[in-house]
Amino acid sequence: MNFTSRIQLQQGDITKLKVDAIVNAANSSLLGGGGVDGAIHRAGGSQILDDCRKIIARQGGCKTGEAVITTGGKLPAKYVIHTVGPVWNGGNKNEDQLLANCYINSLKLAVEYNVESIAFPNISTGIYHFPKDRAAEIAVKTVDDFLKTNQQIKQVIFICFDDENLQLYKDLLGNGS
Ligand code: ADP
């Protein structure tokens, strides 16, 4: 398939990226956790948790597939968009749509906040055990479809932490990306 050149692929640590917004694979409590969530809170400092607590007070956390936005704190990124991926439960619990919703709702929020560059981790493919190949296909297709209808977002980086995800995204996006 031919994907827009606004989609790029990188391997590494999302907390190091100097983009307008990075996306966090959060949990519904918004209080932090392991994996990429822990790394973002550690690197970004307590301002992120302060903002999360304000959101909790207002709306009591974040549902699966939805997204909220906070400061980037000490991160190079201006904002963190926290989205809650689905826990893989065999595939018949609406997991595919809920994962797509994470990408769509994060991008919608990004547009609202005038974000032009945004980086996504491989949501749900760690502790939540979503099959990596299936998650990568959903991620790429959902983002590409969104970008077709939106010109504001100039750059979307898929940042892969592990080699397996990197290879899956390379295969999907083609080597030129
Ligand atoms: P989830 O609970 O949504 O599965 P995890 O944080 O466990 O979230 O994993 C999501 C993905 O984030 C995994 O593919 C994991 O390898 C990756 N990851 C972990 N730490 C980082 C990091 N610092 N930067 C980018 N990706 C990361």
TrEMBL record:
SMART domains: A1pp
Residues annotated as transmembrane: none
Domain Macro: residue ranges: 1-177
Annotated Gene3D superfamilies: Leucine Aminopeptidase, subunit E, domain 1
Pfam families: Macro (PF01661)
Domain of life: Bacteria
Alphabetical list of InterPro entries matching this protein: Macro_dom, Macro_dom-like
Name used for this protein in its record: O-acetyl-ADP-ribose deacetylase
Species this protein is from: Mucilaginibacter agri
Taxonomic classification: Bacteria, Pseudomonadati, Bacteroidota, Sphingobacteriia, Sphingobacteriales
